[in-house]
Design brief:
Blueprint: H1 2-14, E1 20-23, H2 24-30, E2 35-38, E3 42-45, H3 48-57, H4 72-87, E4 92-101, E5 107-119, E6 124-130, E7 135-138, E8 143-144, E9 147-156
Parallel strand pairs: 2-9
Antiparallel strand pairs: 1-3, 4-5, 4-9, 5-6, 6-7, 8-9
């Protein structure tokens, strides 16, 4: 663990990741009525460019997929843990919901993914993030191909 801790500190020291704070009750207002649970009083978030730097350095998408054992929910929580521990940010939440076919409006499957708060003091925006594929989408239009992400619950820790 000492080598891992040393690596985290070196990575943080070399990165210029800007940090902002938001009261957690303000985050709930941004989610458009989606049920959510926030475990911290303040959300510590960063800007888009810093987040993309973090995503570039992230290793979560290189983890091996094991059906039913290490799948979407595990990738999503692993990315959150990485953001919390290595970068000292808590701006990534675990979303659980359905993926819906946009042509038929029928649910295709239950899924887990990440929701990310990014911005600065004046402008804040939510995104949907697929950690397995490193795809970032606007929260208000989270579509990949013909599939729309519909969150039912989001956990922030």
């Amino acid at each position: 663990y000492c080598l891992i801790d040393l690596g985290k500190n070196l990575r943080r020291a070399r990165a210029n990741v800007t940090r902002y704070e938001l009261d957690s009750d303000r985050l709930s207002e941004m989610l458009g009525g989606v049920e959510n649970y926030v475990f911290d009083n303040k959300i510590i978030y960063t800007d888009y460019d810093s987040f993309m730097y973090i995503v570039k350095k992230d290793w979560t998408n290189r983890m091996k997929f094991y059906e039913e054992a290490f799948d979407c929910d595990n990738f999503a929580t692993a990315f959150i843990a990485h953001i919390n521990e290595v970068w000292a940010l808590n701006n990534v939440g675990l979303a659980v919901g359905k993926v819906v076919d946009i042509d038929t409006n029928q649910p295709r499957f239950v899924h887990a993914w990440d929701v990310v708060l990014l911005g600065d003091n004046d402008t804040k925006k939510l995104f949907v993030f697929e950690p397995q594929a490193k795809i970032l989408m606007p929260y208000d239009n989270p579509v990949i191909n013909t599939l729309r992400y519909v969150p039912e619950t989001i956990l922030w820790w």
